[in-house]
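Take our chain:
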Amino acid sequence: MPRRNGGAYPRREWPDHCMTRAGFPMKDDVGRSRLDSRATRAVWLLAALGLAAAQAAAQETEDFDPFHWAYAAAFGSGVYRLDDGTEAKVLRVTSSFWIRKSAIRRGSNFGLRLLLPVSVGVQNLDAENLPPGRDDDEIEHVAILPGFEFEFPGKRFALRTRAQAGWGTELEGNENSARLYAVGLRSRFDFPGAAGKPALISGLLWAGFVPDTGERHTLVRLSQGIEFDVAVPGWRFNGGVMHLKPHVLADWYYRPPPELAFGDEDFDHVETAWQLGLAARRAGRFKILFFRFEAVGVAFRFSEHSSGLRFYLNSIF
């Protein structure tokens, strides 16, 4: 375009693949250095939080007894205690189905999901550490904890609340059964303008069980975490831009006082666990056959007494 004084504006050369049809540089290529800088800062922040978590876990020195197997359907995969004193390595799989999809829209925004978590435990001890006659490769227990979850979305804030009730049984050992229940609340607050688009995630879960013989038992879990969402423009899957979602999560477990002393005694802290994870998601959801999921991730979960890997298919929210 000629200037008024007869000269011409200097032209900046851009490769053809960086130009739009209108002749301007593509926005993704102009801002790539900015995205790389945000991603780098997010990774460094995650590393610093992970180091702090490891140091905090190393300072805990209390004795530890694995949680009862009846908590597995609520708290997730890990090692749990069976009624005969042995241990089970538990895998929990959670399926969910939208009854009413949540969305920011005119009218009611809330959504409703059906939750169907199932936990299965196999023996965790070696044969020489088991009672006579017990095999070390048997399925030790199964449990299911169905329920409903309401979701209330917003532009920057979202809230989820759930109520669940189920049943589980031991298949070996004492073969005891228990009725299970859980009530939870979880929130997410996004910071879309910050580096790495962090989200602050908080949660409270009250879980318990009533065995066929014996008294009711309950535990409370408080959660606090931060999750990032970093776009990777050069990585695409089925036409969608991929995103990396690293996170740090801390869970504090408390045993509430007896009912008759509730309000007069403090909650007893029994365990602290940390989790460092990384997931990959695309613009849109993944789909395999009839199953849809948000992301594919792996997390390293550890406390002062145990550690292990977890695989997950959704955000930690």
Observations:
- The mean pLDDT is 80.
- The CA atoms of residues 277 and 299 lie 4 Å apart.
- The first strand starts at residue 78 and ends at 81.
